[in-house]
Amino acid sequence: MPDISADQVRHLADLARIDLSDAELTSLTAELAQIVESVAKVSEVATPDVPATSHPIPMTNVFREDVEVPGLTVQQALSGAPDREGDFFRVPPILGEEA
Question: By three-state DSSP, how is residue 41 classified?
Fold first, then answer.
């Protein structure tokens, strides 16, 4: 296991202004040592000739052509509205507010 001492974890906790109990300090020391060991293992196999990947299966984005199409007119958009006021939908007031 990498050499992570309780003093180093205590120092990091002090820098982060975190109060740790003795039990938490012991637990975090072991956990941080395991994390550092795991990163070291990955670093051993992640050589410059191995491409970085974010997903195990090669993926590509599918793009479509960005084509402008005409939208609805105000009359078409409001044709199914149960209530309207001019060019706007009319909805009941909420939270007892008056419009």
Answer: helix
Report pTM. Answer: 0.46
Could you tell me how many helices (H) and strands (E) the chain has, helices first?
3, 2
Digit-coded pLDDT (tens) for 58-97: 888 889 899 999 999 999 999 999 999 999 999 888 887 6
Report pLDDT for 84: 92
Residues 2/40, Cβ–Cβ less than 8 Å: yes
Contact 1, 33 (CB under 8 A): yes
CA 76, CA 98: separation in Å to the nearest integer?
A: 28
Q: Longest Cα pair distance anywhere in the chain, in angstroms?
A: 73
DSSP of 9-39, one letter per residue? HHHHHHHTT----HHHHHHHHHHHHHHHHHH
